[in-house]
Amino acid sequence: xxxxxxxxxxxxxxxxxxxxxxxxxxxxxxxxxxxxxxxxxxxxxxxxxxxxxxxxxxxxxxxxxxxxxxxxxxxxxxxxxxxxxxxxxxxxxxxxxxxxxxxxxxxxxxxxxxxxxxxxxxxxxxxxxxxxxxxxxxxxxxxxxxxxxxxxxxxxxxxxxxxxxxxxxxxxxxxxxxxxxxxxxxxxxxxxxxxxxxxxxxxxxxxxxxxxxxxxxxxxxxxxxxxxxxxxxxxxxxxxxxxxxxxxxxxxxxxxxxxxxxxxxxxxxxxxxxxxxxxxxxxxxxxxxxxxxxxxxxxxxxxxxxxxxxxxxxxxxxxxxxxxxx
Length: 326
Ligand code: AVJ
Prior knowledge:
Elements: E1 3-5, E2 12-14, H1 15-26, E3 30-31, H2 40-49, H3 56-77, E4 81-87, H4 93-106, E5 109-115, H5 118-131, E6 135-137, E7 140-141, E8 157-163, H6 173-185, E9 192-198, H7 203-209, H8 216-232, E10 241-248, E11 253-260, E12 264-268, E13 273-277, E14 282-289, H9 295-302, E15 305-312, E16 318-325
Parallel strand pairs: 3-14, 4-5, 4-8, 5-6, 5-7, 8-9
Antiparallel strand pairs: 1-2, 9-16, 10-11, 11-14, 12-13, 15-16
Helix pairs in contact: 2-8, 3-4
Bound molecules: N,N,N-trimethyl-histidine (AVJ).
N,N,N-trimethyl-histidine (AVJ) binds next to β14.
């Protein structure tokens, strides 16, 4: 990541953060990209979200993996040895269910987590090597949205790429299609992709998952402003903005916004920028796309994968789909 030393604070400012915030707050309507959520506090808040009663995604996907991990590994391997790649460093228990199933199949497994954060990769390596015998972790520091540059697999060895947790939900359909094609371009025929997506369901269930009773998602959303205050010397009053979660049926997505409660101004010292907010004006902070059954398979096919198998929960709330590179 590019950084520059600011004379004022003597602290490192990320150019990536600075330019994203400058662009986003100059847009109309104002927006900020969702990757900004994940500073240390935001990552901890997200962990808390995954345990909320309303946030069914994590527990539903986990139950699908707990039931079908063995079948998923069998379908992906078709009798060959597997190497497991994960987009995003997974130290989560969901990844462990799949790795344990793979280790049962072939005793030792090379696991390649791909992430832009070296500390996330190191944390994943430490946990996984300690907790699952037979897993050798080979961290890959790169931005997977730009494509995958992985070393060649051995003949007779197949890659299984994991992209779980509804992470693809943050991408609009066009960018999601591009991402899947880029992943496909980094694979050989016979390799596969396991994709976890959230499905369309009753509005009230979707909305509650993004506007929980305890206010954790609201804190997660407002933490963006706390982060800008710290990293860009800004003076946002996080309590001057309300958390809003909206179901946009036409786009099939949950949107999160921060809504200014009053007419106000914010000063971002490090950007030398003053931003005005009208009362009721929103910053659009996240899209979380929800798929129709069958739509995921279509997206996989479009990107050069054959839809090999899909698994869901009894309520049909979440889907995990295996695409085989053709
Ligand atoms: C990490 C993108 C899957 O969209 O459900 C959770 C992020 N935002 N609550 C999601 C999130 C608010 C999450 N993803």
